[in-house]
Amino acid sequence: MKLFTHNMLSSKSLEGVKVGYPLRIVAKDIQISQSEFNKEFVKNIIAKLNWKVFVNAAIQIGYGKDLSEELIKNYENDEEYLKKVHHLLMEVEIIDGELICPETHRVFPISDGVPNLL
Asked: Which CATH class is domain 3-13+24-115?
């Protein structure tokens, strides 16, 4: 599961859950792969992210130290910053772990990179 995916997941569909977002991550196995950097793609994705949730997720898995809690001004023109974000969004993948509902504390497994929220 990539952090981009995590940013969109919620357990709101569960009975008794009002928000269910963001899910806490417990990563047991993380894989890093290479992905071609596409500046325009990363700029467009950043605009769709809940930035604070993204940064917190990166910190939870031990990869968020290079990101600021607030999105930096003029990020669109900072290629090094965009490359750091690209790395976290596209190259870091949680292979095995858990997602935890913030309201019910129900645990959902991540197996072979796929979260199971059923």
From this structure: mainly beta
Q: What is the mean pLDDT of each run of 10 residues along the chain (118 residues)?
A: 95 90 98 97 96 97 90 95 96 98 96 95
Q: Where are the domains of the chain?
A: 3-13+24-115
Do residues 100 and 107 touch, judged by C-beta distance below 8 A? yes
Q: Which residue in 38, 1, 3, 41 sits closest to 22, CA to CA?
A: 3
Q: Measuring CA to CA, how many Å separate 118 from each of 22, 24, 47, 99, 109?
A: 17, 16, 29, 12, 10
Quick one: DSSP state of residue 72? P
User: From start to end of 74-113, where are the E strands?
Assistant: 92-100, 107-111
Q: Apex CA 113: angle with CA 109 and CA 117, to 5°?
A: 35
Q: What pLDDT, on a 0 to 100 scale, did the predictor assign at position 95?
A: 98
Beta carbons within 10 angstroms of residue 86's beta carbon = 20
